[in-house]
Amino acid sequence: MVRERRDLYSLPDAPLASRCYSHSKVETDEEFDARWVTYFSKPDIDAWELKKGMNTLIGYDLVPEPKIVDSALRACRRLNDLASAIRILEAVKDKSGPHKDIYPYLIQELKPTLTELGISTPEELGMDKL
Amino acid sequence: MLHLKLGRVGCLLTRRAMVALTDSGARLSTHGHHEVSDQLDMSQPMYWDRLDTPLPDRPWKDVLDATDKSLKQKEKGPWSALSKEEKIALYRLKFNHTYPEMKRPSQEWKTVIGGMFIFFGITGLVVIWQSFYVYPPQPPTFGEDWQAKQVQRMLDMRINPIEGFSAKWDYEKKQWK
């Protein structure tokens, strides 16, 4: 997936800068993904942290990997928040923009989690139409 | 950093707009039993529908009645036990517009173009009125006779005879080339 440089001020626990003129390490895609999966996997994550994490993630110039979305959906389950889970799916679909093949891939990868947690996609609920 | 900061600044700027747009539905739903003030309390967490902010600071409907509360209780159990309508209801409790609803096209462009043409028209009328009532009389140098004599004088003086004005006049045949 195509990505731009990440910013320094993303989260309190993000120590790495990735500007070209710095001499510090550039974060790899795997490290980025792992960091976000860990963020959402916090067992006692609270609603604010979920909100902050999702809004920050959607602010980046990328579509999150399925494993990050999976972690976020499980966080919604721990918070008993189905509405936010559906909202997250809508948001990642919107992030893919003109690339119509990203969202179906995401849903395909997330299908086991969606069935396990009982999350319906916006399409299943008829909410993808006006 | 830039795109995040801009998002936040844009967020702050749109708050003024959001005051008008977060309709009375939002205000009424938050001021259940408190006294209803005319102005939206901007010191409280606000709700807004933004494509880049999927989870706003507060849910759409704050004040829940008994049915909503029982639905919220059911949400704590397995979600596969919820019907489609219940899931949609839970979504609508937390959010106002879905993403497609946020992205729906408006007819505003017609108002804009129409308003533009109205103003062009008014300006046109002003210009026409002006040409009758404001402009002084035309100088005599614009008249047909004067212009003809002026051209003849220029030809007699051989104005630009090589490449320009008089070069285009045929002095033998007394006509333009």
TrEMBL record, chain A:
Compartments in which it is found: Mitochondrion inner membrane
GO molecular function annotation: metal ion binding
InterPro entries, sorted: Cyt_c_oxidase_su5A/6, Cyt_c_oxidase_su5A/6_sf
Pathway(s) where this gene product acts: Energy metabolism; oxidative phosphorylation
GO biological process: mitochondrial electron transport, cytochrome c to oxygen
Pfam families for the chain: COX5A (PF02284)
Keyword Phosphoprotein: yes
GO cellular-component term (any): respiratory chain complex IV
Topological relation to the membrane, as annotated: Peripheral membrane protein
Highest taxon of the lineage: Eukaryota
Keyword RNA-binding: no
Assembly mode: Component of the cytochrome c oxidase (complex IV, CIV), a multisubunit enzyme composed of a catalytic core of 3 subunits and several supernumerary subunits. The complex exists as a monomer or a dimer and forms supercomplexes (SCs) in the inner mitochondrial membrane with ubiquinol-cytochrome c oxidoreductase (cytochrome b-c1 complex, complex III, CIII).
Family: Belongs to the cytochrome c oxidase subunit 5A family.
Chain's role: Component of the cytochrome c oxidase, the last enzyme in the mitochondrial electron transport chain which drives oxidative phosphorylation. The respiratory chain contains 3 multisubunit complexes succinate dehydrogenase (complex II, CII), ubiquinol-cytochrome c oxidoreductase (cytochrome b-c1 complex, complex III, CIII) and cytochrome c oxidase (complex IV, CIV), that cooperate to transfer electrons derived from NADH and succinate to molecular oxygen, creating an electrochemical gradient over the inner membrane that drives transmembrane transport and the ATP synthase.
Protein name: Cytochrome c oxidase subunit 5A, mitochondrial
Phylogenetic placement of the source organism: Eukaryota, Metazoa, Chordata, Craniata, Vertebrata
Gene label: COX5A
From TrEMBL, chain B:
SUPFAM superfamilies in alphabetical order: Mitochondrial cytochrome c oxidase subunit IV
Gene Ontology CC terms: mitochondrial inner membrane; respiratory chain complex IV
Sorted UniProt keywords: Membrane, Mitochondrion, Mitochondrion inner membrane, Transmembrane, Transmembrane helix
Bilayer-crossing regions: 112-132
Pathway(s): Energy metabolism; oxidative phosphorylation
Protein topology in the membrane: Single-pass membrane protein
GO biological process assignments: mitochondrial electron transport, cytochrome c to oxygen
Keyword set includes Mitochondrion: yes
A Pfam family: COX4
Presence of keyword Mitochondrion: yes
Entry's localization field: Mitochondrion inner membrane
Family classification: Belongs to the cytochrome c oxidase IV family.
Assembly mode: Component of the cytochrome c oxidase (complex IV, CIV), a multisubunit enzyme composed of 14 subunits. The complex is composed of a catalytic core of 3 subunits MT-CO1, MT-CO2 and MT-CO3, encoded in the mitochondrial DNA, and 11 supernumerary subunits COX4I, COX5A, COX5B, COX6A, COX6B, COX6C, COX7A, COX7B, COX7C, COX8 and NDUFA4, which are encoded in the nuclear genome.
Function: Component of the cytochrome c oxidase, the last enzyme in the mitochondrial electron transport chain which drives oxidative phosphorylation.
Protein name: Cytochrome c oxidase subunit 4
Gene symbol of the encoding locus: COX42
